[in-house]
Amino acid sequence: MVQLLRYMSTRGDFEAYRDCLPVLGVDGSLANTLTDSPAAGNVEAKTGTHVGIDTMNQRAVMNARHLAVTCHV
To answer: Among 25, 38, 60, 72, which residue's CB has the most CB atoms within a 10 Å radius?
Structure first.
């Protein structure tokens, strides 16, 4: 996720991309996260989940959850 944000920050359309990200404590998948924090409303983040396959048991396994952020300072 960090590599994606770094790459996108080099593009001329990064501001439009950033404006589409969920805002901490405000909307999207981060609407109910840290709503009472000073960071609420000031952090955009790209969420992500990596899922693999447990071939022995034939089921999906969540290996990692990701959160890459951009902040207004």
So the answer is: 25
> What is the C-alpha separation between 20 and 51, in angstroms, rounded?
24
Question: Mind listing the pLDDT tens digit for each residue in 3-42?
Answer: 888 898 899 998 898 888 889 899 988 888 889 999 899 8
Sign of the C-alpha dihedral, residues 23, 28, 33, 35? positive
Both tokens of residue 55? Answer: 């071939």
Largest CA distance in the chain: 48
CB count, 10 Å around CB of 54?
Answer: 9
2 phi and psi, to 5 degrees?
-65, -40
This prediction's pTM: 0.62
- Using CA atoms, how far apart are residues 45 and 18, in angstroms rounded to an integer? 8
Q: Cα(38)–Cα(44) distance, rounded to whole angstroms? A: 13
